[in-house]
Amino acid sequence: MNLFAFTLRRLLLLIPTLVGVSLLTFALSRIVPGDPARLAAGAQATPEMYQQIRDEFGLDKPLPTQYLDYVRGIVTGDWGKSILSRRPVMEDLQTYWPATLELVLVAMVIATVVGIPLGVLSAVRADRPSDQVARIVSLLGVSVPAFWLAVLLQLFFALRLGWLPASGRLLPGVVPPPSVTGLYLVDSALAGQWDTFGQALRQIILPALTLSFPTLATVSRFTRSSLLEVLGQDYVRTARAKGVAERSVVLGHAMRNALIPLVTMVGLSIGWSMGGSVLVETVFDWPGIGLYATKSALTLDFQPIMGIALLYGIVFSLINIAVDVTYGLLDPRIRRA
Amino acid sequence: MTNRQEIEARYRDLREALATEGVSRRTFMQVAAAAALASGLSHGAPVAAAPSPGAPRRLAGRQASENTLVFGSGQDISNLDPHTGHDYSITWGQRAVYDSLLRYEGNPPVLKPLLATEVSGSPDATEWTIKLDPKATFHDGSAADAAAVVWNFNRMLKKNLGVAWMFATAMDEKSAQVVDPTTVKVTLVKPFGPFEAVLPWLFVANPKVVEANEKDGDLGEGWLKDHEAGGGPFTIANWQPGSTYQFARFPNYWYTAEDAPKPLDSFVWQIIRESSTKRIAMETGQVQLGDNFTPEDLEGLRANPTFVVNDAPSMSPCSIKLNNKVGPTSDLNVRKALSHAFDYDSALEAVSGRGEVMQGPLPTSLQPWHKADLPVLKFDMDAAKAALAASGSKDGFSMEYVYVTGLTEEEQFGLILLQNAAELNIEVKMTPLVWPDMVARASKADTAPPAMCVYAGTDYADPDNFLWQGFHSSQAGFWSAASWYQNPEVDQWLEGARATSDQAKRQELYNNVQQRIVEDAVEIFVYVQTENTAWTADLNYTYVPIMGGDPRVIGFK
Fold it and tell me: Mean pLDDT, to the nearest integer, of B115-142?
């Protein structure tokens, strides 16, 4: 199967996945107890006000009709609106999604840029003190709760040292760059607003560091174990026997093969980090999709909940496809399988 | 397994292995100690270059002007529309960009003129005359006149959302009429004594601007959620949903309040959800006014003379609603027993003393309305036992106590009740629920919990706000009336108080209502919160216990 057919097949499989996600979230939002219309109407609403909200959101229609209306809306770009804030869900997703994406991408950059060299160092100096330090860092990475690390970083870098801001995506009063991608770092660079770029960078460091820590730890240990395995292979021994410099053996010969599985791992980590961004977004007041999801879930605001679930379904599926395609590019045996 | 599956399985194994990896305790402690020393986090380690957290620093480049107020709050301004959005944070934004007919000032709150210079009602509270300030203008320079006010009344009623519940039971679209450019006459379909008290919530938008932005007959709703069409002291400078809402001073604002400080150049509503983050933001000078701190953070700020901690009573009473309609709590003696069995002082300790025990259904700060000599039930286990013995459930029973998941103080109130009720052989089952589920439970008498902890909101400074909402029969089914108390005599008094503008008569009727509600032990009246805000000492800010303060009268000293 060529790469195009392989990709197309995976993309087509996306359709039943998304239908499943939409059915599941719709069903869940309708079977949970609670009446969002009563909540939105307020404590002293008249019966007419309450009924008006139910009519507006079609809550008295039969469930199959409600689902078909919902699907029709999705296809035409109308993802409904929040029953509480009355804002269109699509508009909210466009607002909050880039913030989470930017945070996760920067966290992934930190995790790989720090995690891979740390893993290499551990592998080439296995069981020596530097490896032990790396192991401790990894252990902390997977066991330290994100909210605790977040507050610790805030106390130290924001309050005691005053080097970095404690929260937010930009400081109050700083106007965001003109939106092209919604990612402030990219948009400010595109607009040549380097002051804003610097400000956005300072703001993102602490939350991205917090979010990156578990992935960094895993990348580091994964790199170490992969590299140790590869370093024991015959072709590495052959390279060494031929007198190739150790640096070249490790970085040139072994690393190339050791890093292939990391593509999958980092890809999957992007998905997990998106799911795990809720806590980090809460502590750092990062206006991302995680916060939006939490707020919507706690108020039973079902249109945003369904929109977020669908968006996550799309993003996770696309990440999986991207990982498979990349892996297929790197290892043709996968495409043939 | 495919390679992909192998990798995923390997990744899972690795994560599990890391979580239990066999790093020796000695090695761990050595490395951890070294890391702590290196970072200066170990106890007592000096951080030479660290600035003192004592004095808030205004971060360079933070603000366009030093005359900017940044308010750190956990609550979003989700919809700025003057007629469809209404909550604590939204009204801060609305007050910044819109003028209302009247405004609240001070604590206890008093009504002050804004667009309206005078409001007078007929004795039967059905006809109201509103005289407008002829100087009032919108941001485009056009007059904020009677025609605009009538148009806004009608838009609010048409949308029938947000604040409409305060008006819709008493008026329709024919009620408001233009008499002349500065006079509006409102003829209500039902008498409504507190009409004047709800006028601060009719924000007046410029009809021309709204109509120009109307789409598909939405009366401008889509546009107004994040744009303004007002005449208030500020305009929108920067709108970042879920994050930052910045308002810039409108230079030609027509209104000046008496004794108002120098107006702010800019007012920023900054979303900061975590209390610790908010405290850090205040201590580093990013924020000058913040709300909703934990008691620990509030005390931390109080210890620093640079900050003022607000110790004024709020108007947010917390009570445990007892189901008066169904189950054991429908028995008056059971309700009395539970009210006597509740340790009110312990409840105050649970909120770090930040409040005062309620003395009946109204906050004591709601003067002159609160009745001082109510026979409020005190904590008294002997009286509790006697009341239970006189009830139909003298051998005890089992009941649910429902509270909001994650709200520690509500959980502690439940535990206080649980502990003392056990002495009466009443088993209290703690049931945490998310708020929508609690609202749903309250909607039917059969499902309304026997005991449910609820904080009441304050929208207008009138007993009607609390007593109608909580105790009029028509409200049963809403969360604020989760006790399902339906008493025709009380209904009659409440309706009578709405049907007159004679304040002395109203006082008498509300006294009757308060007395009866306490005698009927409708709820366990727990406490009224102390307001939870703090600000920098250089800020000239007067807290108003109805939806916060008014940015048009806040400034730096």
Answer: 96
Q: Is B430 exposed, middle or buried (0-12, 13-18, 19+ CB in 10 A)?
A: middle
Q: How far is CA B317 from CA B258, B356, B487, B493, in A?
A: 31, 10, 22, 22
Per-residue confidence at B41, pLDDT binned at 50, 70, 90?
very low
Contacts of residue A311, Cβ cutoff 8 Å, sequence gap at least 6? A93, A97, A289
Specify the residue for token string 């490395």: B31
Inter-chain touch B4–A324, beta carbons under 8 Å? yes
The single-letter DSSP state of residue B259 is T
Give the separation between CA B405 and CA A114, rounded to whole angstroms: 39
A299 touches chain B (CB under 8 A): yes
For A99-134, the pLDDT digits (tens) are 999 999 999 999 999 999 999 989 888 888 888 888
CB B189 within 8 A of CB B170: yes
CB A115 within 8 A of CB A219: yes
In angstroms, what CA-CA distances link B267 with A260, B65, B108, B261, B288? 52, 10, 25, 14, 11
Structure token digits, residue B500: 């007159």
CA atoms of B359 and B377, how far apart (whole Å): 9
> Which pLDDT value is given to residue B478?
84
Which residue, A135, A295, A155, A273, is CA-closest to A215?
A: A273
B7 vs A: CB within 8 A: yes
Answer whether A136 sits within 8 Å of B28, measured CB to CB: yes
Q: What is the pLDDT of residues B413-453, one digit of tens each?
A: 999 999 999 999 999 999 998 887 888 899 899 999 999 99
Among candidates B2, B221, B277 on the partner chain, residue whose Cβ is nearest the Cβ of A167: B277
The span from the CA of A3 to the CA of A5, in Å, is 6
For residues B4, B5, B8 and B12, what is the CA-based torsion angle, rounded to 10 degrees?
Answer: -160
Whole-number Å distance between alpha carbons of A296 and A274: 17
Residue of B nearest to A95 (CA): B241
| CA angle (A320 as vertex; A318, A326 as ends), nearest 5 | 100
Count other Cβ atoms within 10 Å, centred on residue B206.
23
Rounded to two decimals, the ipTM of the complex is 0.76
| Polymer length in residues for chain A | 337
Taking the C-alpha atoms of residue A331 and residue B426, their distance in angstroms, rounded to an integer, is 69
Residue A52 and residue A48: Cα distance in Å, rounded? Answer: 6
| Alpha-helix residue ranges (DSSP H) falling in chain A | 3-31, 36-41, 47-56, 63-75, 89-124, 129-143, 146-153, 184-190, 194-231, 234-241, 246-248, 255-258, 260-284, 289-298, 302-330, 332-336
Q: Are strands B426-433 and B397-404 parallel, antiparallel or unpaired?
A: parallel
CB contact set of A128 (below 8 Å; sequence gap of 6+): none
**What is the pLDDT of chain B when averaged over all its residues?**
88
State the DSSP string of B483-521: T----HHHHHHHHHHHT---HHHHHHHHHHHHHHHHHTT
State whether B272 and A168 contact (CB < 8 Å).
yes
Q: Do A324 and B41 touch (CB under 8 A)?
A: no
Distances (CA, A) of B391 to A181, B386, B524: 68, 9, 17
Determine the 3-state secondary structure of A179 from DSSP. coil
Q: Do residues B458 and B440 touch, judged by C-beta distance below 8 A?
A: no
- Per DSSP, the three-state class of A299 is coil
- Give the largest CA-CA distance in chain B: 87
Residue type, B205: A
Q: In what order do the strands lie in the sheet with B266-271?
A: B234-240, B244-249, B266-271, B68-73, B289-291, B533-536, B307-309
Task: Report the relative pairing of strands B266-271 and B68-73 from DSSP bridges.
Answer: parallel
Residue ranges, chain A, pLDDT below 70: 1, 43-44, 331-337
| Contact assessment for residue B484 and residue B344, using Cβ atoms and an 8 Å cutoff | no
What is the band of B35 on the pLDDT scale with cuts at 50, 70, 90?
very low
